[in-house]
Amino acid sequence: MDKLQTIQEYQRKIKRVVITEEEIKEAIAKAGKQISESYDGRPILLVSILKGAFVFLSDLCRAITVPCEVGFMCAKSYYSGTVSTGVVKITMDLDRDISGYHVIIVEDIIDTGRTLNDIVKMLKARNPLSLRVVTLLDKPDRRLVDFKADLSLFTIPDYFVIGYGLDCGEIYRNLPYIAEYGE
Ligand code: IMP
Ligand code: MG
Which amino acids are annotated catalytic? Predict the structure, then answer.
């Protein structure tokens, strides 16, 4: 893929800001407090699904005030343009036994639900003390498998979003807000 484009083209595709930095910050502070209050003395392991959730994880973990560890998994859902093909592949697994942890999966967005459906099944089989899912964004209109997060910070309609970790063709992850993408 030829990624050559002008800065004007790059900026033109950022259609409009959907969720501001301030709104994200506020929602994460609330979620961090909620997670901290559910701590029962046993360690929390935040499992971030790369790459999209790396920004969310870094802010969420700093809003948690009780002992917590972080872990990373890499899942790739294959895209044809902005449409998911339904093929999910785990390209990097966790580096530890999760049986002594309250695991919280930290995801950027739930779209069809396929990625998390697969990952939850896989991690449940490893017998964590408990398993919950926190997602920054949820697009319930797009669901193809029945999947619900335990905590969802924002629900959005069916449009393709970028920023705050989310990409289009690997670009735009570094925007500090969530924006609608358009060609
Ligand atoms: P699912 O398996 O269809 O739920 O797909 C989830 C994954 O697709 C997310 O973790 C994202 O990486 C990607 N994805 C889904 N919707 C969007 C979007 O609007 N913008 C960017 N990435 C998206
Ligand atoms: Mg992702």
Answer: 111
The arrangement of secondary structure in 15-181, i.e. its CATH architecture, is 3-Layer(aba) Sandwich (3.40)
> 10 Å Cβ neighbour count for 56?
27
The pLDDT score that the predictor gives to residue 4 is 85
How large is the average pLDDT for residues 134-143? 96
- Distance separating the N- and C-terminal Cα atoms of the chain: 16
Cα–ligand 1 centroid distance for 109 (angstroms): 6
- pLDDT one-digit tens code per residue, 9-50: 999 999 999 999 999 999 999 999 999 998 888 899 999 999
48 CB within 6 A, ligand 1 = no
Query: How does DSSP assign 128-159, residue by residue?
Result: -SEEEEEEEEE-GGG-SS----SEEEEE--S-
Q: Is 82 in the pocket of ligand 1 (CB under 6 A)?
A: no
109 C-alpha to ligand 2 centroid (Å): 6
* Protein residue with its CA nearest to atom 20 in ligand 1: 161
Q: Can you give the residue ranges of every domain in the chain?
A: 15-181
Q: Is the CB of 117 under 6 A from ligand 1?
A: no
Q: In what helix (H) or strand (E) does residue 61 lie, and over which residues does it extend?
A: helix 54-61
Cis peptide before 51 (omega within 30 of 0): yes
